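Review session, final week

We close the course with one last complete record, chosen because it touches almost every idea we covered. It is Membrane-anchored mycosin, a protein from Mycolicibacterium sediminis with 449 residues. Go through it on your own first, then we will talk.
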Amino acid sequence: MTTRWAPLAITAALVAAVGVAPEAAAVAPPRVDASALPSPAPPAPPGPTEQVGACETAPGTSRGGRAQIDRTTLAALWNLSRGAGQTVAVIDTGVARHRLLPRLTPGGDYVATGDGTQDCDGHGTMVAGIIAASPTDHFAGIAPDAGILAIRQSSVEFRRTDGDGTGVGDVRTLAQAVRMAADAGATVINVSTVACTPASEPLDDRALGAALAYAVDVKNVVVVVAAGNTGAECGPQNPVRGGAPDWDDVAVVASPSWYDEYVLTVGSVDGAGRPSAFTLGGPWVDVAAPGEDVLSLDPAGDGVRDDGPVSGTSYAAPVVAAVAALIRARSPELTARQVMRRIEEAAVRPTAGWDPLVGHGVVDVMAALSDGGAVPTPASPRTADRRPGPASAGRDGRAVAFWGAAACIAVGGALTALTGLARNPLRRRRRESVADGAGTRDAEFGSTR
């Protein structure tokens, strides 16, 4: 089976490894297996690792790109909320200590022996900057008073010393990181990594599904994830017929996105609100946000990137994570599900209704933060309006059944079913700008197994 796992990028080696495009196959929304919930444990790598690449340390200053939310809108948002009191866990390649991230807290390291505040890849620092960087003349995070919980879960600058290839991180360590972040008090979790597989060969990610359900239903955490990028990272585009989700003709399954009962999946649009050429569609897409020609922080810890803007759904997701933090700070009485539903309800809807590329529409940050976003009752399922079949029983109903079963199951050996995934390394080439019809995008890394 070919598995592609990446912080939303492109790798030339992956193109050769993928070969023939996967055929579409009928799939169903994944069920959560309570017995697969990872046991609580301190963050640690899956095995012995060593660094094989140099960390990116070149300082930078602003050049090119554009703000995802303009300063006038940000000023209006900040009159209502700046995200104070919220903690956004960035589960990524780590988040470097940076003068513009004054509320950065170490969360743990699943790559090496650090504390989560080392970022050799640069990806996690950029994601965190979009969420909570202090305002400067050139750049500002959307929720600048929110705290960042830095968790390094993946890196291609490291490798397992007892395995082949380069890269550390897989769905098992992601599951562990999600549970750890929820237990550590995160109110929002951002995941800008994705594992893609052909629909005919679904990934065994039960531990991740269980961790997501635990975060939302037990710890009341909003979980925001990137939809993924087409091309070498996630392969061909899924069917893009609008009006209603279509699970029958899915070509590529993206995880954690397809756990749509528990996550808010974010696609990318350009500056005019059009779907980005690279954004991966699917029946699990909920909303979209700007993800092209983006600026963010330089991991060197001083300014913003100087090697040009980046693009990808990686950078659309933290826009929505930041909005969730703003809402939670202003309306702490709302549950995680209510926050997610509010963001969906306030989105600028496509003409034809729900759309597989942008979901319920482009996020309207002001409407979501003000009374423009409708707030459902706790019993109202977030996705019942667009998911047919048994899975539409609703998030709350599933929570009762899931955690009723979980109470009867010992989870000490729950991860044994995922042993085969423990050595699913990441493979990467150095970041470069890749020109395409949508502009430039960040060629970070991908993997095969």
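Two points worth writing down before the exam:
The chain has nine helices and 16 strands.
Confidence is low (pLDDT under 50) at residues 1-21, 58-62, 377-381, 383-449.
Good luck, everyone.
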